[in-house]
Amino acid sequence: MKCMNCGAVVHDAKTCPECGFDLEVQMHSLQLSVQYYNQGLDKAEIRDLSGAIELLRRSLRFNKLNIPARNLLGLVYFETGEAVSALSEWIISKNIMPDQNVATSYIQELQSEPAKLNMINQTIKKYNIALKCCREGNEDVAAIQLKKILNQNPKLIKGYHLLALIYLKREEYEKARKILKKAMRIDKTNATSLRFLKEVDDQTGTVTSLEPRKFFRSKREEKPEGRKESDGMTVISPPTFRETSVAATLLNIGLGLIVGGLMVWFLLVPSIKQGINRDANEKIVEYSNTMASQKAKISDLNDKIKKSEDTVASAQQQINEASEKSTAYENLMKANSSYKDGKYEQAAKALEGMNTELLSADAKEIYDKIYGSVQTTMFTQLKSAGQEAFDKEDYEEAIDKLTKAREIKENDYAVLNLLAHSYRNIGDTQNAIENFQEIVDKFPKTKRANSAKGYIDKLQGNTSTPDDSDDDD
Amino acid sequence: MINYEEELKKFKPLLDVDEVEDAIYSRDLTDVIDILKEMLKMNHDIKHDQGTKEQT
């Protein structure tokens, strides 16, 4: 201690050995400072931070050189989220006592984590903005901002207070209670927290419980084993002796089995089920893949079958065409042979129904030559035979020959006329009319037509008499 | 009953890190011993003044 009068160093003396100054007041002041520091330390240890701040400030008022008190005050400020106040105390402390001062390590620690310091600084700035918003009436914005701030810096007790105040204004008392309880966990005796909490309690009619939930522990603590209160006296009873019987052992084994079974049921069975399901799923996938490949194979085989069928059909068609072709050439050869022998009718039969498209160009030329010659010859023969039969009044024969002749040459009047009269003479009126009508149609506005018309009228029962038939030939 | 407006007035902006220096310089670090020293000085000055007057 230094004498406050002369500055001389004094050790455990009530008066200064240099100037004789009475040091009792100074010593008392220093003792009070130490005493308040101790009390502040006690408060800080039980997280009564407001009380600790008050006592430590008082300690420094009696002795500003009380380094532990100043350092502790800084620490308590830091704990309440007021980093700047904490830094101020530590910097002053370091200036007073540069060596062997814990404040130096605090400052270094804070400076070694610039990101954290920056984060704290940002939250302080945001808090100030939120406060400004509140003053401007933007409580909603402020509330959102404060929630973010408290997530980043959960020690900022003034942030909790401001948010609680906003909730109180909005009459959201339960939210305010929740926030204030968080604040109370940091500082148990903060006057603002207590005042706001009282307001919440008054408004809701429910007293906020600040005790931590220690249901099981408190029960145990309330009933210590062997200790009973009886008429104001504590009676200590001896601990009960538990005898282990066979039944108890069996019961324990049974319980063990049940617990084991339940563990198997709840832990092993789901994993087994999962394994089975996984295997089943794998098999399903495998089968699906197999089925897909089988389907693809079947599809390929079907395609092959279809191709084979097409090939067979095409081969068959080629065979048929070849057969038709050979038949056509065979008939052509027969026709040629018959034609050369003068058997025109056989030649014509051979040529009948022949598919000329199957013939080559040379063969077609031969066909055309034979066909043209046979047709003319046959027509002449058939016509003559028909005429001859008609003259002999063999009308059936005449119809046969003349019909064939008409098939070769349709527009021959003599054939048509003889045929019509042959039908008329055998009494086949319908065919007779048809043939006469054909004459009318094919030779209109001629005498032949008029004559044929006359016969038609006659056959149909009209009175007009036609001229005789074959005048124009 | 808490008055929102009145309570809000009690909230003061917090100092940020940039303002530490100003905060330190503006701090009043006077303690009881400083006051006692001041009182002693004043007392000494008064006695000195009185002695001077008596001499004159």
In short:
The complex is a heterodimer of chains A (473) and B (56). Chain A is an all-alpha fold.
Q: What radius of gyration of chain B results from the CA coordinates?
A: 23 Å
Largest sheet composition of chain A: 2 strands, antiparallel
By DSSP, the count of extended strands of chain A is: 2
Side by side, the strands of the main sheet of chain A go 1-2
Largest sheet of chain B: none
Indicate the low-confidence ranges of chain A by residue numbers.
215-241, 467-473
Beta strand count of chain B:
0
Describe what you observe in this structure:
The complex is a heterodimer of chains A (473) and B (56). With 473 residues, chain A is an all-alpha fold. Among the domains of chain A are: 24-112, Serine Threonine Protein Phosphatase 5, Tetratricopeptide repeat (Alpha Horseshoe), CATH 1.25.40.10; 118-204, Serine Threonine Protein Phosphatase 5, Tetratricopeptide repeat (Alpha Horseshoe); 360-459, Tetratricopeptide repeat domain (Serine Threonine Protein Phosphatase 5, Tetratricopeptide repeat, Alpha Horseshoe), CATH 1.25.40. Helices cover 74% and strands 2% of the residues of chain A. Chain A contains 18 helices and 2 strands. A two-stranded antiparallel sheet of chain A has the order 1-2. In chain A, α13 (344-351) crosses α14 (361-391) and α15 runs antiparallel to α16. The longest helix of chain A has 96 residues, at 246-341. The N and C termini of chain A lie far apart (175 Å). Residues 215-241 and 467-473 of chain A have low confidence and may be disordered. By secondary structure, chain B is mainly α. Chain B has a domain at 29-56. Chain B is built from 3 helices and no strands. The longest helix of chain B has 24 residues, at 32-55. The radius of gyration of chain B is 23 Å and the shape is elongated. Chain B starts with a helix and ends with a helix. The chains are: A mainly alpha (473), B mainly alpha (56). Chain A binds chain B through residues 4-5, 25-26, 29, 60-65, 82-85, 87-88, 91-92, 117, 120-121, 124-125, 127-128, 131, 134-135, 158, 161-162, 165, 168-169, 192, 195-196, 199, and chain B through 1-2, 4, 7-8, 10-11, 13-20, 23-24, 27, 29-34, 36-37, 40.
